[in-house]
Write a structure and sequence with these properties.
This protein is 23% helix and 27% strand. By secondary structure, it is an alpha/beta fold. The chain has 2 domains: 7-160 and 317-347, Alpha-Beta Complex (Quinone Oxidoreductase, Chain A, domain 1), CATH 3.90.180.10; 163-294, NAD(P)-binding Rossmann-like Domain (Rossmann fold), CATH 3.40.50.720. Helix 3 packs across helix 4 (190-201) and helix 3 (161-173) packs across helix 9 (302-311). 46% of the residues are buried.
């Protein structure tokens, strides 16, 4: 094993706020590895809504209260290294880990049930409740460093972990299967475009809500039909005509999503980019016997299924743009314009 450096290059989030809270540094101490951990040399890391939402304190239940501005609802300790989407290589392993794993190419499963030999009551998210991949090196429990064999580049692989596992988890929770009619909101984003591919791979009919400019690309990914964001859903899709809604948007138009669901329909949500507060007519919920799924924690089989789909080329990476880690602020600015399809990925310096 090559000798590891004592410091590394990375990006520190120093508090809640704007891009000025992101500091690109070359003097960050190397993370400490426990006996059940592995050290990962990060090759590439994707940009996510979570990175920005955590930085600005969006998760706070009370405006201006940073004490619960995280996925777990607890205050974060700063500085924090973000980055949930990681492709890299194992360069060191703890004493309780098979040393033959050194050299493996891996993707990190972002939903962590083990952190340095500890098992939290509610899983942590990599790069949120603990340090993540926006640095040259990171540490994770060996069980969450998943070996992958693929001809794809590191940048392409880094487009998968968070978005595709989130999408696969929602489809798993809703038991989406062949013949289902699935409506996907926010379909051009990382999770949305992943959902289109993964639902199509299950044999479902996919209806994608997106902008007109992105319609052709989503059809090429497997959508049967696209609907404009401002179109009336009941007119465009039909009332009581959809088996599954995969929602990443929420916001004011949310009640119309339930109107499209058939009796015994299933609704899953993993985002609220149009606003977290919605109006629910409870009669719609119980008279139509609908099932609701809030999806953050991954089902145990989801990440393994995703690795298999990547290795068998059943799904393809969607990389919209690549930035060096030093330009993370610019990358997040481009990300927030929402003009792209797929993922924005950061290359980590050697």
């Amino acid at each position: 094993m090559a000798e590891l450096p004592s410091t590394m290059t990375g990006v520190l989030m120093t508090g809640h706020g704007g891009p000025e809270k992101l500091e690109f540094r070359s003097d960050i101490p190397l993370p400490v590895m426990g006996e059940r951990d592995v050290m990962i040399r990060v090759a590439a890391a994707g940009v996510n809504n979570t990175d920005i939402n955590t930085r600005i304190g969006w998760y706070a239940k009370t405006e201006g209260n940073a004490e619960d501005a995280s996925w777990s609802g607890e205050a974060l300790n700063f500085p924090r290294i973000q980055g949930a989407d990681v492709a890299g290589y194992i360069v060191a392993a703890g004493s309780a880990v098979d040393q033959l794993r050194i050299g493996e190419r891996i993707l990190i499963e972002p939903c962590l049930t083990e952190i340095s030999g500890q098992y939290p009551t509610h899983p942590w998210y990599f790069g949120s409740e603990c340090n993540g991949g926006f640095a040259q090196y990171t540490v994770v429990a060996a069980r969450h460093a998943c070996k992958i064999e693929s001809d794809l580049t590191d940048v392409e692989l880094a487009s998968f972990p968070c978005s595709y596992s989130t999408a696969e988890n929602m489809l798993t929770r809703t038991a989406t299967s062949a013949g289902d009619r699935v409506l996907v909101t926010g379909a051009s984003g990382g999770v949305g475009s992943a959902t289109v591919q993964l639902a199509k791979a299950r044999g479902a009919e996919v209806i994608a809500v997106t902008s007109l400019a992105k319609s052709k690309e989503l059809i090429s990914l497997g959508a049967t039909q696209t609907i404009g964001r401002d179109e009336n859903l009941k007119d465009a899709v039909g009332e009581n005509s959809v088996d599954v809604v995969i929602d990443l948007v929420a916001g004011p138009a949310w009640p119309s999503l339930l109107d499209t669901l058939r009796p015994f329909g299933r609704y899953a949500v993993a985002g609220a980019i149009a606003g977290p507060l919605v109006e629910l007519d409870v009669r719609t919920l119980y008279l139509k016997d609908l099932s609701f799924f809030g999806c953050t924690v991954l089902e145990p089989n989801v990440f393994g299924n995703l690795i298999h789909l990547i290795e068998t080329n059943a799904i393809k990476p969607l990389v919209a743009e690549v930035f060096p880690l030093a330009k993370i602020g610019e990358a997040q600015t481009v990300f927030q314009t929402k003009r792209h399809i797929g993922k924005i990925v950061l290359q980590i310096p050697d």
